[in-house]
Write a structure and sequence with these properties.
The complex is a heterodimer of chains A (about 130) and B (about 260).
Chain A lengths: L3 H15 L1 H5 L14 H6 L6 H22 L3 E3 L5 E3 L2 H8 L3 H12 L18
Chain B lengths: L4 H32 L3 E3 L10 E6 L6 H14 L15 E4 L1 H4 L10 H5 L2 E4 L7 H5 L5 E3 L6 E3 L9 H5 L6 E2 L23 E2 L5 H4 L6 H4 L5 E5 L6 H8 L2 E2 L11 E4 L1
Parallel strand pairs in B: 2-11
Antiparallel strand pairs in B: 2-9, 3-4, 5-6, 7-8, 10-11
The chains are: A mainly alpha (about 130), B alpha+beta (about 260).
Chain lengths: ~130, ~260
Amino acid sequence: MNSKALIVTGVVIFLLIVLFPFWYMRGKAAPVPEVELTPKAKAAQKCVRSTEYMRAEHMQLLDLWRESVVRESKRIYVNPEGKEFNMSLSNTCLDCHSNKAEFCDRCHNYASVRPYCWSCHIENPKEKT
Amino acid sequence: MDSSRRRILQLLGVSALALTTKPVFNAFAKEEVAAGAEAVIKAGAKALKAKQWALVIDTRKLESEADLEPLIEACHKIHNVPRLQNKNHEIKWIWGTHYHNAFPGKAARFLAEEVEHRPFLVLCNHCENPPCVRACPTKATWKREVDGIVLMDFHRCIGCRFCMAACPFGARSFNYRDPRPFIAETNKEFPTRMKGVVEKCNFCAERLAVGQLPACVEASNGALAFGDLYDAASDVRKLIKTNYTIRRKQTLGTEPSVYYIV
């Protein structure tokens, strides 16, 4: 019954393998992506709602927009400042944020979320095909 | 633990009291939400309104396939309807068909020649009693209360095709393939569909919302009239009053909203 050394070695090797992703990538966390604003988005200063709100709640907002437009046939969104917007992903959001790759995708990829909006909604309304 | 009758009654009393506090808390919670959501959602000011939209097609003014082509083209272009060569995969919102296909049961053995050879424009009838809506298990298609349009929510369609089986007019098409490669010229303002959803004519709901008439009506040079079926002064009612009109498969009781002047 003198297999203590063997067991310890085995445990160490096991831990090394299991923790491989941690020690291999230590200190090299993927940098938080910086989203780029188009000149048009920059000039507008403010999105439909405040930046913090949009950052945290844009998915809920888009869900609300979808529900209102498709189901309730209400297409105008009046934000707290009283400014009116046509509730349309392709025609309103992407009108300013026409750089989907640098704006939407960068964050979505980092967070590993894959919204399937783009299988139907046109992702490059400004680009000529 | 002492569980005398008195103790149990006390507990019941306190619990009942606790239950009554819930509505009060709810009321407070509601107020807070209402104060937080200042954004308002509304319909556009220019949106056209009706109780039940209807279409009257004067088939006398549409004599040949060439007359239908611009109407079909106008619709399919703005709605990103793909053109697939395989007949089984075809997507159609509006198309031309023979009299005996459009009005089975109404075709006599011998017909007036011009009627027999005239193509009839067919599309979703936006029935007042739509069987497709009853068939849909996900409520991805429904009859819009405000103006009677039978609409589709492509987000929610699971592609079961029950609606296609239920529709007696063949007005619905299924995307067996990804439609995008088959769209010659994409209208950037309207979404495409994806593989696995059903689609059909939407009576140009997106155009009505901004005060425009449906694309086919606009392209028809007066052969098509669009209006409120329940407004006795509307264009469609005037036409129906002054002309003999027929509807497709009326005996089925779906109450189609597309009328044909033959």
